[in-house]
Amino acid sequence: MRQLTRDDLAIDPVDAAKLLLGCELESRSPQGIVRVRLVEVEAYRGGDDPASHCYRGRTPRNDVMFGPAGHLYVYFVYGMHFCANIVSLTDGVPGAVLLRAGEVIEGLDLARVRRPSARSDSELAKGPARLTGVLGIDRAQNGVDLTAPDASVRIYQGDPVDEIRSGPRVGVAVAMDVPWRFWVDSPAVSAYRRGGKRARQLS
DNA sequence: TTACCGATTCGCT
DNA sequence: GCGAATCGGTAAC
Question: Which positions make up the signal peptide (predicted)?
Answer without folding.
Answer: none
